[in-house]
Amino acid sequence: MNKTIKLTSLTKSSGCAAKIGPAVLDSVLNNLPKFENSNLLVGFDKKDDACVYKISDDKVSIQTVDFFPPMVDDPYTFGQIAATNALSDIYAMGGNPAVAMNLLCFPSCLDPSLMHDILSGGYSKIAEAGAVVAGGHTIADPTPKYGLCVTGFAHPKEILTNSNAQTGDVLVLTKPIGIGILNTATKAELLSADKIKELTNVMTTLNKYAKDSLKNLNVNSCTDITGFSLIGHGYEMASGSNKTIEIFTDSLPILSDALDFARMGIIPEGMYNNLEYLKDLFRCSNNITQEMKDILLDPQTSGGLLLSMPEKDALEYVSRMELYNPWTRIIGEVTDKKDYSIIIK
């Protein structure tokens, strides 16, 4: 049994960059039957972050599942990132996580203490979220993978979806992008210890604080930015709302060095999957560089919330979020539907 092996050496791809490409996924899901039930308020056909099922007139359950292979070598940190990412879907829908179930794939050749550390890291973030672990499922697998099935609750009026953006709204992003590119650089041992610490801090920051800071503010639409990239999740919001979203690149929070690595071609495979699916759905101004396009299509792991809200509320929200992180920015606006769903300026 090996305690010192690097977890990332056991993976081909890491984090949300390991997700099946959106084109392939769509081709499968679009040919599956859609379940009809009056209590199923949000299902997979909505392309939202989690499903919503009505329990009573004043309570809905929100359910999600998410797991992936490691993007860091430390097992405890990997557990924290995976749990933070899975919990995020509940926050993106306006709910509060309550119960979590572990999903763990683990190589039988590794020391069981590494399994303990992965689960302990996950538990730390579940506890921070105010939820509980109630069990789970494990299988032997040559590639380690970890994540959660999470159930949360909310009042029906508190539910946020990715398909209600309104003309005149501004867009707010609560975490920097470039995570997938820097994870790729980390795997290639190109990132310094300080930069890895900065990256890890972003991925292990719960979106709980971003969601809780919305209290008494008007929010029309919300999603979290993960493997489908900022353009991809922005497209889902724009398309579902029948609007166009304009993104201002000079306002984007971007992790330091991410543009440099993109310029060097340090790009995760998931970026190319995103590009193939989205290439005809967005338009860039002539001044947008190739590395900026790569950043916008970069698959994020445990990324931030993307919110569509009136400007007055957005300014108040950005002010509130200064208490929790320095990343939150207004990055664009929502307009009436144009020729493209996403316009990059």
Automatic annotation (TrEMBL):
Keywords: ATP-binding, Kinase, Magnesium, Metal-binding, Nucleotide-binding, Selenium, Transferase. It comes from Clostridium saudiense. NCBIfam families: PRK00943.1, selD. HAMAP family: SelD. The record marks 19 as: Important for catalytic activity. The active site is at 16. It catalyses: hydrogenselenide + ATP + H2O = selenophosphate + AMP + phosphate + 2 H(+). Synthesizes selenophosphate from selenide and ATP. Homodimer. This is Selenide, water dikinase. Residues 48-153 form the PurM-like N-terminal domain. Its cofactor is Mg(2+). Belongs to the selenophosphate synthase 1 family. Class I subfamily. GO terms for molecular function: selenide, water dikinase activity. Mg(2+) binds at residues 49, 89, 224. Pfam families: AIRS, AIRS_C.
